[in-house]
Specification:
By secondary structure, the protein is α/β, with parallel strands linked by helices. Helix content is 42%, strand content 19%. The two termini are 15 Å apart. The model has no long low-confidence stretch (mean pLDDT 93). InterPro entries: Bact_response_regulator, CheY-like_superfamily, Sig_transdc_resp-reg_receiver. This is Response regulator.
């Protein structure tokens, strides 16, 4: 089974790097969204196994997007990993407290990103 990952990030270069890493290194299918609203629409319409969500975005930030996903019966069970430059112990604790599955720091190591995601989600290791 090929995993489908939704990447929601307002920065195009981040979306592209993440897409290439996850598709080339892990063999996952990646769906890209450039805004929280677009991401929520994809999450409702597509079969998504996990969401990688930027915290700092205009309009809807990642935490608000997460809350909206959690309030919808069609998306509330999709695991969400936040991708953020806010990596202090307090920031991480506050993100985990809202119920996200995990937090990954920006900048990230492109070569280890799929491994980190698989570990957080409890998926089989990437060969």
């Amino acid at each position: 089974m090929t995993r489908r990952i939704l990447v929601i990030d307002d920065e195009e270069r981040i979306r592209v790097v993440v897409q290439v890493c996850l598709e080339e290194l892990a063999g996952w299918n990646v769906v890209l969204a450039e805004s929280g609203e677009e991401g929520i629409a994809y999450a409702k319409a597509e079969e998504i196994d996990a969401i990688l969500l930027d915290v700092s975005m205009p309009d809807l930030d990642g935490v608000e997007v997460f809350r909206l996903l959690q309030s919808d019966a069609t998306t509330c069970n999709i695991p969400v990993i936040l991708l953020t430059a806010k990596t202090s112990r307090h920031d991480r604790a506050s993100f985990i407290a809202v119920g996200v599955t995990g937090v990954l720091a920006k900048p990230f190591d492109a070569l280890t990103l799929p491994h980190q995601i698989a570990e957080i989600l409890g998926w089989a290791p990437i060969p």
